[in-house]
Amino acid sequence: NWGVWLINTSTQDYFYLFRGTTSTLKERYELPQQVSFFDFNDKAIIFQKLTGETTSTTIKIGFSSGFYKLIRISTSGSIVVE
C-alpha cells in the first residue's frame, strides 16, 4: 500500500508520502506558508497496492483569505479538483 499523510498545523502545513503505514514515512513536503489544509488536523489516505482503491474523502486546501479548492478522492482512487 502507498499513502499520503496530510498534517494541518498552526505554523505550516505539510504532507508525507509513505509506503505501508505512516510509521514508514518516505518524504516530507511543506506547503507554501500562504496555503493551508482546512477542517482537519491530520488525515491519512491509503491507496491499495494493485487497484488504487481507498476510502472516499474530501480535502479542502487553499489560502486563508477564503479562496480554496476541494479535492475529492473516490473509493476507486480517482481524484477530482473542484
Question: What are the defining features of this structure?
Answer:
single chain, 82 residues, mainly beta, four-stranded antiparallel sheet, 8 strands
**Class by SSE composition:** mainly beta
Number of helices: 0
What separation lies between the terminal Cα atoms?
26 Å
> C-alpha Rg, in Å?
13 Å
In short:
By secondary structure, the protein is mainly beta.
What do these coordinates show?
There is one protein chain. The protein has 82 residues and is mainly beta. Helix content is 0%, strand content 54%. It is built from no helices and eight strands. The chain has a four-stranded antiparallel sheet with strand order 3-2-1-5, with no helix packed on it. It has a four-stranded antiparallel sheet with strand order 4-6-7-8, with no helix packed on it. Strand 1 and strand 2 (14-19) form a beta hairpin. It is flat. The relative contact order is 0.21.
